[in-house]
Amino acid sequence: MSKVEESIEVGVPVTAAYNQWTLFEDFPAFMEGVERIEQRTDTLTHWVTRIDGVEREFDAKITEQIPDERVAWTTVGGEVRQAGVVTFHYIDDNTTKIMLQLDHDPEG
């Protein structure tokens, strides 16, 4: 498994950052490689990605969700294997630090 850890500070309150992150179907507008996400249930999403010309589809299950604090997930079934967590940290009333930790099993 490969590990990715990234963080960014954004000029919005924690609630705004968290709310935007949980609008999964909007990800293609700002996340490179994401073609489509369908939220099928409160805890199940279906992803279609295209990275370097390779399309993959997979389901991801939300394993933990604490409003304004964190969202954790893992893939279920299929050939894509990953698990991750994104956390939201208050800096001040208009600044949030977003931290992403992702474990994935890359192919090729």
Question: Please, could you describe this protein's structure?
Answer:
The protein is mainly beta and 108 residues long. The protein has a single domain, classed as Alpha-D-Glucose-1,6-Bisphosphate, Chain A, domain 4 (2-Layer Sandwich), CATH 3.30.530. The protein is 7% helix and 59% strand. It has a 7-stranded antiparallel β-sheet with strand order 1-7-6-5-4-3-2, with helices on one face. A hairpin with a 2-residue loop joins strand 6 and strand 7. The relative contact order is 0.27.
Gyration radius from CA atoms, angstroms: 14 Å
Strand content: over 45%
| C-alpha end-to-end distance | 13 Å
CATH class: Alpha Beta
**CATH homologous superfamily heading:** START domain
The figure for the number of domains is 1
- Unreliable segments of 5+ consecutive residues: none
Largest sheet: 7 strands, antiparallel
Give the averaged pLDDT, no decimals.
93
Instruction: Report the CATH architecture.
Output: 2-Layer Sandwich
Indicate the overall shape.
Answer: globular
Helix-strand makeup class: mainly beta
The order of strands across the largest sheet is: 1-7-6-5-4-3-2
Give the CATH topology: Alpha-D-Glucose-1,6-Bisphosphate, Chain A, domain 4
Topology pattern, helix = H, strand = E: EHEEEEEE
Number of strands: 7
Helix content: under 10%
Q: Classify the oligomer.
A: single chain
Count of DSSP helices? 1
